[in-house]
Amino acid sequence: MPPILLPPPSLLRVASASSPSGADSVCDRLGPGLCCCYSMAGQGFFQDIFDGEAFKYYADGEWKVSSSRASVSITNPSTLKTQFKVQACTQDEVNKAIESAESAQKLWAKTPLWKRAEALHKFAGILKDQKNAIADVLVKEIAKPLKDAVTEVVRSGDLVSYSAEEGIRLLAEGKFLVSDSFPGNGRNKYCLASKIPIGVVLAIPPFNYPINLAVSKIAPALIAGNAVVLKPPTQGAVAALHIVHCIHLAGFPKGLVAAITGKGSEIGDLLTMHPGINCISFTGGDTGIAISRKAGMIPLQMELGGKDCCIVLEDADLELAANNVIKGGYSYSGQRCTAIKVICVMESVAEELVQKIVQRISKLKVGMPEDNCDITPVVSQSSANFIQGLVEDAQKKGAKFHQEWKREGNLIWPILIDHVTPDMRIAWEEPFGPVIPVIRIKTVEEGIHHCNANNFALQGCIFTKDINKAILISNAMESGTIQINAAPARGPDHFPFQGLRDSGIGSQGITNSIIMMTKTKSTVINLPVESYTMG
Ligand code: G3P
Description:
Blueprint: H1 9-16, H2 27-30, E1 57-59, E2 62-64, E3 71-75, E4 82-87, H3 91-109, H4 113-129, H5 131-142, H6 146-171, E5 175-178, E6 189-197, E7 200-204, H7 212-223, E8 227-230, H8 237-249, E9 257-259, H9 264-272, E10 279-283, H10 287-294, E11 300-303, E12 308-312, H11 318-330, E13 340-346, H12 347-361, H13 381-396, E14 400-401, E15 407-408, E16 411-412, E17 415-418, E18 435-441, H14 444-452, E19 456-457, E20 459-463, H15 467-476, E21 481-484, E22 500-501, E23 504-505, H16 510-516, E24 518-526
Parallel strand pairs: 7-8, 7-10, 8-9, 10-11, 12-13, 12-20, 13-18, 17-18, 20-21
Antiparallel strand pairs: 1-2, 3-4, 5-6, 6-24, 11-23, 14-17, 15-16, 19-22
Helix pairs in contact: 4-6, 4-8, 5-6, 5-8, 6-7, 6-16, 7-16, 11-12
The structure holds SN-glycerol-3-phosphate.
SN-glycerol-3-phosphate (G3P) binds next to loops.
Pfam family, one: Aldedh
Main location: cytoplasm
Subcellular location: Cytoplasm
């Protein structure tokens, strides 16, 4: 592929005006082939991260080209063409990046908390200023609808700022204990306990929220005094590199943050088993289970997907339920771990609910992310093939369809699969696509059983007007979070967010992430005697 000779900024500025999002991106000018995408906002804001052929990796405070001279291609899910390339970093480059993160962290840990918070607020401001350019990358890299892409960037800036303030609140205080509160002790030992940084955090976000789920790891780690090594997903890597440039420009110490791109087969084990990594925060699929088996004695924070069950009772507000199924089940084409992934509806109201959902599905706009369509191409051909496999299995086993199956490339038209039975794969597996199965139940217990019989246990939701019943059912559903009269959702980002069983380890949400990325240090003062005797 010949290197792209970039037009002079003045010409590029003209080109950037053509970008659909009004973003300062030159993607459109250079066409759907290998496109270099960097913002022209403020004179080529992101041009340092691009070498004309591939986006660079970031280590030791600099944007670098890998000595491997190899790159990893990123396919645009909408065009099925190579959109970007990123470096295929070598193992030596991984080692060097972790080494400089370790030494930078020692200084960062000594940086006053208020200064750490100040740097994060600066990062948040830069990130939000660049929302259009970064959203443009999300549109091309993961086919996220433009409006959702902009929202993700703004939400991420808010998450960074909230992390800064929550970190000050949490880490400003420690614990003071005296010994005589425990039987057999006098008051001659004073214990001062406080939270200190854990060291170097390996952050591995997923493709579907490469900005928000990156900063949901990076910001808590940094405010807690840690260093961060970011290993972005292949699709989503360029978006993630854009946020790292915002971190770079916010003036964090050299080496404190690194962003390593490359083939998981070449550097995955080195990263996750590296002795210089003191904590791993991973969001994604069952790769997380393999990581948890290899990582060794370090804290792990993982979220590995869900099969969020929506139970609809006879007294439910069916308009509300149908609206939430659309919003919670089909947004971003169902590619959300918290998406509604199965509906268990009491059979007496099932027909009415199904018709309401079908009517709303017919109004969903299907097409390209640049046009802000509701349903856009799923992230890859393999994902689209997997979804199709689940649908065909249900068809073969007698499920009822309210829409024709339609697929063009990675673009799958939304469908509702009715009269699903437990022998169908779609009843249990996570499609991560715009397809939702409906199971008609005779008792609430059937719905609770279906929720609890699944290996996943991320979120779920209940629609009923009886709040007492809702709370009792929530208590019986063994998922990390149950939403009452609303669709599952991770946000707002300061709420605790956790998956149980195969859905994850530990708990996220800003507060829990900060705490999990620290360790406790105790200093005990031993007095010679228990009390001072006068005279
Ligand atoms: O799939 C990632 C998960 O975090 C979804 O987030 O805010 O869309 O519920 P949200």
